[in-house]
Each structure stands twice: as structure tokens, then as C-alpha cells.
Amino acid sequence: MQRPSEYKCIYFLATLYMSLMTLSAILGYKLIATPLGVLAGASLVSPSWFMVGDMITEVYGFKTVMKLFWSVIICQFIFATVCWLVIRLPSPAYWHGQEGYELVCGHLLRIAIFQLIGITIAWNINARLLSKWKVLLRGRFFWLRSIGSSGIGLIIFSIISVFPAIYGMFPLHEVISIVAWSCALKFIFTILLAGPSNLVVIFLKAYEGVDEYSHSLRFNPFK
Prior knowledge:
Blueprint lengths: L9 H17 L4 E4 L2 E4 L5 H15 L1 H26 L10 H8 L2 H29 L5 H25 L5 H37 L5 H5 L5
Antiparallel strand pairs: 1-2
Helix pairs in contact: 1-2, 2-3, 2-5, 2-6, 2-7, 3-4, 3-5, 5-6, 6-7
């Protein structure tokens, strides 16, 4: 069994995971009009973010993904805090870009705080369910386990993080509609991404030389 430092793809996947999580925060206030209703731009990114986390959990183990998770959470909080502080520094009179920065990055700290609460609960449930079901199913049916765990995690995340993050910025009925349609879209994307992610997991296990059941034996998610 290889040590984590010897894995070939973990650094790329970790960077991708952090990038998708940051994109989710930045695009949180971008609203998209569709024939079915208004969606938050982050809804197009969050399923990929959860799916990458599922792949890391499946291939490299629960302990590895939790170390990555907390590192990303801390880095995102630092990113949001620095943005919040720098945006509020005085600007020269001839510069007129303040409103753009306020619109895109001015709410990142608020999002990061709610996201810290929501994702801590949602991702722990997601990763533990994925690992628990891996033990029960002896490492089989990753695509099905990922749909179930990510679907539950994304809905919990949307209710705990997205709703309070945008509450007060739009009418209440719009907030409820945005969260509801975002949850539906996230679940649909999770199903669509399950097949391709399953192929990636098969490739990673072969490429990294990982025993598909070894991580489940070394970690008991029931505890």
C-alpha cells in the first residue's frame, strides 16, 4: 500500500476540490433565469465539488478527505476575510470599480461563515454515508452510493448554508424558490455525474494501485 505522499493524482484532485469550493462561494449571488425558475449560479458547481470529494473519499480514504476538507475550509475563510478587508480600504477618486468588487466579493465572508456551518454538517454526513455504505456493499456500486450520499449532503447544505446566506437580499418567496430549484438541479446533476465519476474512480484505483476495499478495512465509519 502506498503512502499518501506517493500518490500521483491527489495533489491535482485536492487543488480541483478547493477551486470548485471557492467557485461555489463566489457564484453564490449570481442568479440564473430559467423557464422553470431562478437558480443560484453555485448550483452548477456544487455537484461537481461534492462528486470530487466522493472520488477522493472512495480512492484515498475517509481520513485523507477529512484532512483535505478542513484545510480547504480554513483557506477559504482566509480568502474571504482578506477580500472583505481589502475591499473596504479607501480607493482613489478616479477609480470606479468599487461597486463591482462589492457585488462579487463583498459578501464572501458572510457566505464563508454560513458555508462553514452547512458544509461541516453536510460533508461529514456525505463522506460517512459513502464510507459506511462501502463497508456494507464491500466496495461495490460507487456510482449508486455517491448519488445517495451526495444527494443527501447537497440538500442539507442548501438548506443550512444557501438559505440563510441569501435571506434578506431577495423577497422570501424568491429565496424559497431559489433554494428549491437549486436543490432539484443539484440532485439531477449528481445523477448525471455519477457515471463519469465512476469511470474516473476505476481509473484512479488502477493508476494509484489502491485496493478498493482497503480503506474501508482501516477505518470504521460506524463509530
